[in-house]
């Protein structure tokens, strides 16, 4: 007898533990509670219909929100996978990133970029700075068409000598409405690899620059 009682006690404890660990309220649980409430109500003071409807509406809303959260989570997973697949195709390509800084090397002896202007400018002054901020080259480009103006630096300094490999920054300046104004510059960089970030999604690792979010890429060019 004592053995049987011990087994029953253990079974009861296990059942209680399982029940206590399940804190969610299912639709069956809700209707069971509602049925119990109706069966135990005071016949002389029954539950108000509006109150019952409000309870049912509240449960439906909470249940709907839970299902919506699950769907959004699934959608995020699909979008992340899609982003990763899309980004993997950019490895070995050059992408236009919103930065005037790019990397010069023996494999890539020149830097291409885009200068954005709000109005036509006859002559845009361009300066190229090394990593220390020293200007190594200055030249002008025609901005008379306005909009996005292509800029190409051949990797030479003002004396016609090839500069050392490293990071260089292209800056542009022009006269707009009679005032000197710094212009926005974007440059192309080589995508060496792709990584996934839980918060920002697919990140392109651009040679010499670092991580760039896929959503920040402005254009893609052949490698």
Written account of the structure:
The protein has 223 residues and is of the alpha+beta class. The chain has two domains: 26-36 and 50-88, no CATH class; 94-221, Immunoglobulin-like (Sandwich). The chain is 33% helix and 37% strand. The chain contains three helices and eleven strands; from the N terminus they run αααβββββββββββ. Strands 1, 2, 3, 4, 5, 6, 7, 8, 9, 10 and 11 form an eleven-stranded antiparallel beta sheet that branches. A hairpin with a 3-residue loop joins strand 9 and strand 10 (210-213). Mean pLDDT is 77; it is low at 1-20.
What are the key terms here?
223 residues, alpha+beta, Immunoglobulin-like, 2 domains, eleven-stranded antiparallel beta sheet, 3 helices, 11 strands, 33% helix, elongated, disordered N terminus
Number of continuous helical runs: 3
Label the structural class: alpha+beta
Order of helices and strands: HHHEEEEEEEEEEE
Highest CATH level, the class of the largest domain: Mainly Beta
Count of the domains: 2
């Amino acid at each position: 007898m004592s053995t049987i009682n011990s087994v029953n006690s253990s079974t009861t404890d296990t059942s209680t533990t399982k029940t206590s660990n399940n804190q969610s309220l299912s639709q069956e649980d809700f209707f069971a509670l509602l049925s119990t409430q109706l069966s135990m109500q005071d016949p002389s003071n029954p539950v108000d219909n509006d109150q019952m409807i409000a309870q049912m509406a509240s449960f439906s809303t909470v249940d709907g929100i839970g299902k919506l959260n699950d769907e959004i989570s699934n959608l995020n997973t699909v979008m992340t996978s899609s982003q990763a697949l899309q980004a993997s195709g950019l490895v070995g390509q050059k992408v236009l990133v919103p930065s005037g800084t790019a990397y010069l090397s023996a494999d890539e002896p020149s830097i291409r970029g885009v200068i954005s202007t709000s109005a036509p400018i006859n002559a845009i002054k361009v300066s190229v700075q090394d990593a220390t901020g020293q200007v190594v080259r200055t030249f002008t480009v025609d901005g008379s068409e306005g909009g996005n103006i292509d800029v190409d630096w051949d990797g030479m300094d003002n004396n016609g000598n090839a500069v050392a490999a490293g990071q260089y920054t292209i800056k542009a300046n022009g006269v707009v409405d009679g005032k000197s104004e710094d212009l926005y510059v974007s440059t192309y960089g080589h995508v060496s690899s792709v990584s996934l970030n839980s918060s920002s999604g697919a990140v392109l690792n651009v040679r010499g620059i670092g991580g760039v979010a896929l959503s920040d890429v402005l254009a893609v060019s052949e490698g």
